[in-house]
Amino acid sequence: MRPPPGRPTAGASTSAPVDTTQSTTPLSEILTTYSKELNVSADGQKRLNVRTATAQALQSAMTAAGVTTAQAQGIVRTFDNQKTQVTSLGDILGKTNGAAGQSVTPWSRAVLQKCADKLTVRDDQFLNGLINLNTASPEVIATIPGMTQDLYNLLIQQRQAGVVYSSINDLFQGTTFTTAQLKVLLGTTCTKSSTYILRVRVRMPGTTKIYAAQALVELAPPQANTTSTSSSTSSAATGSTSTTATVTLPQILQWKEVGRTPGWTSWMPAPNYYNTGTLGGTVGN
Length: 285
Prior knowledge:
disordered N terminus, disordered C terminus
């Protein structure tokens, strides 16, 4: 991992790696051994693997996300023989059909803004090691492979303005990011997580003693609802249907009390993601 970044120096090249020499943030606030994202869209639906999906499934997923039927048909037609070359969603941005004399780019920003969060390139239930753009510290943002000073500055400015990404779709809004910058972010970052660190620090009543605890929590995958049907003796009805949601509590993977030094004195303050200027949505699954 790179050392954490300091403030950008005046006159620094915007294409150069981030200056990573000045931060005093403890490594305990930067490093983790457990990081994963459930491979589902922001609404909890399983994503479609573009590398293995049938043409019909891919077209259906895109039209369901709001892509026009004509656009979806064009994408499927021009993309079908290129699927195996894709290793991340960044590989399909601006993808052309490669036909002589043509420059068709079906995977445009407008299309991906609607359906990118519904797509994936892996069938795994969880995606490991992605960096959450909403919650990662500036030091961690700086470690994204291919990160430049220009992109880093843009992400930090958005963080300071209170911008929150509700899904990967939001990255394609407008022209905030260049195509090259999007290809850096896609496949290495996410906008939600399945694991979180929860921290509690309280002062004991009537004393000056501080009690602090930290927990590593994993959110459980969503469970399908259970529907049951029962008969009714009422002459006004022949039966009734009830739907019961299965509630699965988060799993506590680690719990520990934390002392003052070294310990809770180095905890970073929780960020505020609910200022004006956000793109909407909530942080988490």
